[in-house]
Structure formats: C-alpha cells, structure tokens
C-alpha cells in the first residue's frame, strides 16, 4: 500500500507542476527546477505529511494533490511575475533576483536618489511605474520596501535616511495606484550590507533600496 501511495503522490506532483519542470538559469546557463514545480513539490509534501500524521493513507494522497495544487499555483504566479518584471525592467539598472518564494528588486542609489538625499531621482520613475504595472496584474502580491546605507556616518543619520528613502518609494508607489495595505516600508541603515564597506565600490553597493514581491499568504 505504501508504494501505491508513493506512486500516487509522484504522479500527482508531475501533473500539478505541468510539463515544464525545469528552466535555464539566466546567469549560469544550467537547468534548474522552476518555481511552479518547487511549489507543487513542497505543497504536496506538506499535504501528504498532514495525512500521514493522522495515519490516513488516503488522506495523504489527497493532501498531496490539494497541497500540490496550491503550491504549484503560487510557483506559477511567481514565475509569471518574474518574467514580466525582467521584461519591463530590461536596461533599467534594476537588479531582478529570484529567491524561492519571493522576487527581489535591487535599486542602487545612483539610479534612485541623489547622494545623501531622500527625494527620488527622475531616473527611477519608469522602473517604479513598471513594478506598479506588474503588481496591478497580480492581486495576491504584497510589496516590502527596505532602505539601506553604507557605514559612513552615524547610526542615527543612516537609520533616518534609509527609512525616509523607503518611505519615499512607498509614497510614489501609492501615487501610481498600488494599494497602501499591500505595502510595508522599513529603513535598516547600515545593518544589512551586501558588500564590504571597506572600499568605495562596496559602499556604493550597499547604498540601495530593495523591493520584495511576496505572495500575500507568505507575508
């Protein structure tokens, strides 16, 4: 009976995740499991585990199908959002990174803000408009905006500047139609560096605003 349940789970996952189970990594060229498949696998595992916990083999198989459908749907939506964002933001200077169940957009201060200021640079308007456009096409997505600085200056100055920059992005996004309840903004000052603050290039790398698109159920 265990082998029958296992086979049912595997067949269900493959059916839920569709024919396209892999994609080519844009950076390395290597094949990787796409997010639709990952979501289906994780959802199936969660549903099957619940069935196993109540010692019901039939429930485990049903749980796999139900959980896989949910996970696969979330993964598919993220795949679609990522593709749309990469198309909209090509040559914008905005980095698009996929990290499991979230999409991370990195906007360096040279395209987003003037040095030491929190007012938006006109160069960032079009990229933010593009993000708002994609958000408008996917209802079940929330936006987390975070501001970051390098290590130059006091904690008080950096915390204030990073928070003001994050809020400036939030206010702009609200002005172009993104619902306030779907957004959250926070400044982190110098506490979350991406690069070393020991070099000029490293400090420039750390001065940034990040936007994370997250499925509403994950926020």
UniProtKB/TrEMBL annotation:
<feature type="domain" description="OmpA-like">
    <location>
        <begin position="99"/>
        <end position="217"/>
    </location>
</feature>
<protein>
    <submittedName>
        <fullName>OmpA family protein</fullName>
    </submittedName>
</protein>
<dbReference type="InterPro" id="IPR039567">
    <property type="entry name" value="Gly-zipper"/>
</dbReference>
<dbReference type="Pfam" id="PF00691">
    <property type="entry name" value="OmpA"/>
</dbReference>
<dbReference type="GO" id="GO:0009279">
    <property type="term" value="C:cell outer membrane"/>
</dbReference>
<dbReference type="InterPro" id="IPR036737">
    <property type="entry name" value="OmpA-like_sf"/>
</dbReference>
<dbReference type="InterPro" id="IPR050330">
    <property type="entry name" value="Bact_OuterMem_StrucFunc"/>
</dbReference>
<keyword id="KW-0472">Membrane</keyword>
<dbReference type="Pfam" id="PF13488">
    <property type="entry name" value="Gly-zipper_Omp"/>
</dbReference>
<dbReference type="InterPro" id="IPR006665">
    <property type="entry name" value="OmpA-like"/>
</dbReference>
<dbReference type="InterPro" id="IPR006664">
    <property type="entry name" value="OMP_bac"/>
</dbReference>
<keyword id="KW-0998">Cell outer membrane</keyword>
């Amino acid at each position: 009976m265990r082998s029958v349940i296992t086979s049912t789970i595997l067949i269900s996952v493959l059916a839920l995740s569709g024919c396209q189970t892999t994609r080519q990594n844009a950076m390395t060229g290597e094949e990787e499991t796409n997010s639709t498949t990952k979501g289906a696998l994780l959802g199936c595992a969660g549903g099957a585990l619940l069935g196993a916990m109540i010692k019901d083999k039939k429930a485990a198989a049903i749980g796999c199908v139900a959980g896989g459908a949910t996970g696969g749907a979330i993964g598919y939506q993220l795949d679609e959002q990522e593709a749309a964002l990469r198309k909209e933001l090509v040559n914008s200077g905005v980095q698009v990174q996929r990290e499991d169940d979230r999409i991370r957009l990195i906007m360096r201060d040279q395209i987003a803000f003037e040095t030491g200021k929190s007012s938006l640079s006109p160069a960032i308007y079009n990229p933010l408009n593009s993000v708002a456009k994609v958000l408008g096409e996917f209802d079940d997505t929330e936006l987390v905006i975070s501001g970051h600085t390098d290590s130059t200056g006091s904690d008080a100055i950096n915390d204030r500047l990073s928070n003001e920059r994050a809020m400036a992005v939030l206010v702009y996004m609200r002005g172009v139609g993104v619902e306030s309840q779907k957004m959250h903004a926070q400044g982190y000052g110098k506490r979350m560096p991406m690069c070393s603050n020991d070099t000029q290039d490293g400090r420039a790398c750390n001065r940034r605003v990040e936007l994370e698109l997250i499925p509403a159920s994950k926020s």
